Amino acid sequence: MSTIITAQMVNELRGATGAGLLDCKKALTEANGNVADATTILRKKLGSKLDKLSSRTTKEGLIESYIHLGGKVGVLIEINCETDFVARNDDFKSFVRDLCLQIAAANPLYVSRDQVPEADLAKEREIASAAVAGKPPAVVQKIVEGKLESFYSTICLLDQPFVKQNDKSIKELLTAQIAKTGENIVVRRFTRYQLGA
To answer: Residue 21 and which of 41, 128, 145, 186 are 20 to 30 A apart at CA?
Structure first.
């Protein structure tokens, strides 16, 4: 017996994944109404679509600024997309403003892991290894990997939990935005200014 798929179920799944309405309905039907299974189905489907999108060039986009209340913190960010149609879309603009707020609040140093200098990673590995000296090498390696993950979520924008919704990372928000627009979107660069820093 199949479960009836309601419009509310489809909307909730769409809000959680950023997938299209028809894709959400198909996934829910395939998962017999189970939202968790439908989310997994969509993630698999969107994953291959996102891989294809990531190779497309992004020459349009926005440069956005944000000045926090009191004028003590400011952010300037460049986000690129494929077309000016998406760049002018209110949903895209809202996404860019959310990223500005994230940078102002969480103070990341880099956009992604690949921008972190190897010297900084070596220093973090050394500190983490020294803290667990004397333990078996396999245990030390696991602890160091855990500490590096925590380090990345502190300094890399895409690894940080979203300040408005801690259960989602910035990378998940970016993925949802890419799925919504059907275009490749790239966080190119940002600068955060803080008075006296």
So the answer is: 186
76 three-state secondary structure? strand
The most distant pair of C-alpha atoms in the chain lies apart, rounded to whole Å, by: 65
Contacts of 131 (CB under 8 A, 6+ apart): 143
CB of 162 closer than 8 Å to CB of 102: yes
Q: Helices (DSSP H) in 107-168: which residue ranges?
A: 118-131, 137-155
Is residue 104 within 8 A of residue 112, CB to CB? The reply is no
7-53 and 60-111+156-194 agree in CATH topology: no
The alpha carbon of 168 is separated from its chain's Cα centroid by a whole number of angstroms, namely 8
| pLDDT tens sequence across 166-197 | 888 899 899 888 888 888 889 999 999 998 87
Least confident interval from 14-23, 112-121, 139-148, 155-164: 14-23
What residues does 165 pair with on adjacent strands? Answer: 162
Task: Give per-residue pLDDT as tens, 60-103.
Answer: 889 999 998 889 999 999 999 988 888 899 999 999 999 999 99
CATH superfamily of 60-111+156-194: Elongation factor Ts, dimerisation domain (3.30.479.20)
Answer yes or no: are the C-beta atoms of 64 and 96 closer than 8 Å: yes
Fold classified for 7-53: Helicase, Ruva Protein; domain 3 (1.10.8)
